[in-house]
Every structure is written in structure tokens, then in C-alpha cells.
Give the backbone structure.
Amino acid sequence: MHWLHHPLLRGPQRAPFLLLAMVTASGTLGMHMIIPALPAAAAGLHVSAAKIQLTITLYLIGLAIGQLLYGPLSDRFGRRPVLLAGLALFTVAGGVTAVAPNAFVLIAARIVQSAGACGGLVLGRAIVRDQSTADRAAAQLALLTLVMSMAPAVAPVIGGYATAYLGWRAAFALLAGLGAIAFALILARLPETLERRGESRGFHTMLHGSARLLRSRAFLGYAIGGSCTTTSFYAFMSASPFIFADLLHRPTQEIGLYYLLLMAGVALGGFSANRMAGHVRPRTALRVANGLAIAAAATFMLADLTDHITVATVIGPVTLFMVGAGMASPFAIAGAVSVNPLAIGAASGMYGFMQMSYGVMCTVVVETWYPGTVFPVAAVLLASALLGQVALAVAVARA
């Protein structure tokens, strides 16, 4: 398998960057790939849109809770074995979703799949911080955000065409295949990056370390602010297939292309953050990023209030919102995981837990408050951007 020795995958001492991007993106790929398939899956399994949306909502809940475990476990046993275990679970559960005979089995398998997907989200960030100083971590995480955004950008397009030509199950099957590839690559090329494993740490010690993070105003500010700015867009991702299909009457293949533009916004934000890191103070960068998100969300709400909702007035503002999210994310994550250098994994896991929890809350709001309409989505994005601005201001003041 000569392709395993490609320069992008080579790195005996340091984790190959391409693999870091792959494993970190695996968790969110589990959501983005299937979004265009949701209406077809609902029709094929003869269930309501609200029920099939549980494959997103419960997946996010699983991502949130599972990350609390992966971080402390990786601090004790190492990044590599814990990551491999998570990816194995992700792959097997993904295979079950592809052949699920009914909605109950599909949703249950998605919950299990989310438990496996947590590993990539937590440990990709932790490995970056393992190998970098606090200042350098922001630049590396920005580059990671840039590369990661390409996968979710392409995933909905692939999922949309797979659904249109092969049926909705194809999108779920693709996830299982991607998980298997990631597992094989990590097994072959990913080194252990944790220098000191906490063999002497018991459960009580790990729990105490997590509790200390929750008492840190700096950590809470970064985590809450980062969550509000970055995962509030899950509200849009959950509601948008039905807004595009039912309200704007757009075909499935075309909907996938819209998400390409949104993820391009994340990529632009990540690139901007990479350029800013080390040259612009985190306080300034976060203020600019949240300013963009606030302006975008306000424009989106104004379009709805004035009854000017079109594809352009939806995609334009939300893409700008994603630029702000992509720019803020690396600085927020780097700040959060640098609060306590002895608990990088725990901090990454708790940060991810708060991110996903907030994302779940946002999706629940749009699924229960006038579902299928634009106003709840715009309201969630605007409120989140405003709250994120306040929380991140507190974080940089306490750091």
C-alpha cells in the first residue's frame, strides 16, 4: 500500500496533519453527509420530518456526552488507542444505519455512531495542542479548520447526488466506508503524541481536573463563546433541507451545492484566522469574527421580516455567518485547551461537550418553534452571535 507513504501522511514523530484533519472532521461528517438524504429517508421509512430529524438531534447529543469521556481517557491511556476504539465504533454503527429496516433501528444506530465519532473531534484538537505551544496552536487549529471545512463542504454534495441516484441509504453507507478508511490510515501512520500518560490517575483525579476547568472563568468564556459562535449554525443545518425543499422548492442535488458555499465560508474564516494568528491579538480577532456573525444574522432576520426570503437572501447571510464562525473557532479552542496544560484532553472534551450541547439546544428550538420557517433560525443565529461576543470578551479579559 504505497499510498500510505505519501508525504502528506508521513510523520514518525509528529502526527501527520492530513490525518488530524481527517479524524477531526469524522464526527461532523456524520451529520453533513446525510442532511440532503433526510427528506428521502423520511419518505422511504414512512415517518414524519420531525422524527427523521432525530437522526441529527440525537447524534449531536451523543457527540456532546461522549466527548466528556474521550478527553480524560486519552489523558490517561494515550490519544492513539482511544481514537482507534472510537473509529471502530463509528464504522460498525455506520454499516447498521445503511441497512436499517425502520426508523427505530436507524436512530438507535446513529446514537451508537455518534459515540464513536466523538473520538475524532476531541483527539484531533488535543493532538494539535500536544505538538504546539499555546500561540502556535491557534495558527495550527486555524489551518485545521480550513482543511476540515473542505470535507463538510463536499459531503452534502456527495450525499445529495448519492441520494438522488442511488437512494438515501447510499449516503449512510458512504459514512461507514469513510470510517473504515480513516481507521486503517490511523492504524498505519498515526503516532502517539501524549508524552506522559497518567497511569497513576484514577477516576476521582480525572473528575477533579474537569471540575477545575468548570471553575475557570477563562475556560467557560472560551467554551461558551466558541459554542455560541460555531455550533449555533446547526439550527440552520437541521431546518435548511426543509426550507430549501418545501419553502423554496429546490431539488435535492441543488441543495447539496448550497452547503458547498456555506463550508467555503468556514474555509475563508479559517484561512483568515491562520493569517491573523501571531499577528493580531486574540481579543481583536474574536471581536472581528463575532462582528461578522452579528451583522450576518441581523441581515438574515431582516430578509425574513421584510418577506424577501430567496435562495440568495438565505445563502448570502448564512455564508457570512460561517466566515465569522470559522474565524472565531481556532482562537476559542486554542484558548480553552491552554487554560490547563495538564488537562488538554479533558479541556478539549469538555469544550466539545459544551459545543454539541449548545448545538442540540439550537436544533431543538428550530424543530419545535414554528418548524420549517425561517424566523426561528434567524433568531437563534442572532442571539447566539450576541451572546458569543459577550462570553469571549470575558474569556480574553480573564486569560
